[in-house]
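In response to the reviewer comment on reproducibility (Comment 2.3), we provide here a single inverse folding case reported in full, input and output, so that an independent group could reproduce the run without further information from us. The structure tokens appear first.
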């Protein structure tokens, strides 16, 4: 009933924001490629991102399509290690922005719901992201074997702090647009809760959805929506409706990637 009675114009705004997330993602990915002298037109990179989003529909976790991005860039540039390093670096900085967004929201939102469970989740995600960022970007690695050469590509980014800061800022913009997409989804089904709660819940949900426990994060993501928004006073059916609407909008967006993939020769 919540889905059928949702406000379609508001859902359309959310759909446009999901697509805006795609553009922001490419803008933060491209500089990481240029460090390794991989020059690919913006429109082509955007097509790679849409195809990877389509591939997510059939792969574990919500980031399974990253392997498709690596494959496409490696095939286009002939630099597989650089392609992998750029995707891992982009994903790592995005995760750091995700964790910091949730941490700030947790600090600002008194009584945001979830209690110690959210605090532990946010704290754990933040510590992991900070540690992984420090290790991969700040440490020096030897080019011993394929893994060593790949880690060296990641370590090279420490020579470009300004670029990393730019990508991190774009990652915050991505999180902002993604949260707003969910805000409009919940408004479309008649739910209005404080904005800070969305900024706390959505990053945590997206982080847990990255765990390779189901195809495209299905079930994991829905369970987190129900658990977190339930603590904010949203009934189970409505929280589940919000999650499934978000999934539907992302899947609809991914269909463009399916068309692009089908048109490849």
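Designed residues, in position order:
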């Amino acid at each position: 009933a919540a889905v059928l009675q949702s406000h379609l114009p508001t859902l359309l705004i959310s759909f446009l924001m999901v697509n805006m997330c795609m553009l922001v993602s490419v803008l933060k990915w491209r500089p990481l490629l240029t460090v390794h002298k991989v020059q690919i037109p913006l429109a082509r990179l955007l097509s790679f991102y849409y195809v990877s989003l389509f591939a997510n529909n059939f792969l574990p976790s919500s980031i399974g399509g990253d392997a498709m991005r690596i494959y496409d860039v490696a095939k286009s540039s002939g630099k597989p290690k650089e392609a992998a390093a750029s995707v891992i670096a982009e994903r790592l900085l995005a995760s750091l922005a995700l964790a910091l967004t949730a941490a700030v929201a947790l600090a600002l939102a008194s009584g945001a719901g979830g209690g110690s469970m959210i605090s532990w989740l946010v704290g754990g995600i933040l510590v992991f992201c900070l540690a992984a960022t420090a290790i991969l970007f700040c440490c020096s690695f030897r080019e011993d074997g394929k893994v060593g050469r790949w880690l060296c590509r990641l370590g090279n980014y420490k020579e470009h702090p300004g670029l990393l800061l730019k990508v991190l800022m774009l990652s915050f913009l991505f999180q902002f647009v993604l949260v707003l997409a969910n805000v409009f989804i919940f408004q479309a089904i008649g739910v209005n809760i404080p904005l800070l709660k969305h900024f706390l819940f959505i990053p945590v949900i997206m982080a847990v959805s990255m765990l390779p426990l189901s195809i495209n994060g299905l079930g994991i993501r829905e369970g987190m929506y129900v658990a977190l928004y339930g603590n904010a006073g949203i009934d189970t059916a409505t929280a589940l409706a919000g999650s499934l609407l978000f999934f539907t909008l992302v899947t609809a967006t991914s269909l463009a990637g399916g068309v692009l993939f089908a048109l490849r020769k």
